[in-house]
């Protein structure tokens, strides 16, 4: 009986370790990218080479199929993973990168990983539903309190208005009753009192109007500021999307020219593009390869060294070293040609 229980426990250990190591939606983690392709078939061919590795997957991002393996807390863990599984013997071109995990467009090879992704999603949705219900309750309570406050204010204003009306009517009644008494002596005094009361009411009315227009002007000004802020945010988002789409379309053009082996055309088109977009590593790599193919080794070596510096800034040390090695190899070709 005890052996059977232990056997079941050890069967389920891999599943729990898999679920615990998979990141949540939106969490920033390190991963190893072993390929990036426009064609899905090429990505599937590459992923077969690493299908036995943990979390081998194809992620569709920005019009490209990216083949990746593993999730790591740091780049050191990723480097240890590379050494452990002898990844350099299986694949030449790979590098460590940092991503914000999203299960959208991700196709895992192992069933356990895909199952844990769905579990993450359902759990997060339940949390969202609970949060929304709590927010709705809070809003309903706040609305009730605001309604009560508005009702209290309206009743207070009504009481004040009725008091004023009563006071005016009582004064008028007293004046009419005692008209005969105040005809000779106090008629002028009562008239002055009535004029003072009406003057005060007129002044109060004017003040209330002024305050109302000032408040209205302030509210309108605030609304204009909010609308302007929202529109500026939307404009920046649209500009960013447009630039992103343009870069993707340009990368597709460059990959097409590479297939056609039209290297001179790539240099003519890509060099002005890199002046505006100096951090586009894909286009920069294509230009370096084009220079190398047509025998312009010095230009190719310079661009390869620039690529290694860019990748070092992004903390992609392994890939940076590869491009630095490539730069040295191209320089050797140049010196051999001169001899």
From TrEMBL:
Example GO molecular function: peptidoglycan binding
Record's protein name: Sporulation domain-containing protein
Organism annotation: Desulfurobacterium thermolithotrophum (strain DSM 11699 / BSA)
TM stretches of this protein: 212-232
Ranges where the SPOR domain occurs: 24-98
A Pfam family this chain is assigned to: SPOR
Family matches, as InterPro entries: SPOR-like_dom, SPOR-like_sf
Keywords, alphabetical: Membrane, Transmembrane, Transmembrane helix
Gene3D superfamilies: Sporulation related repeat
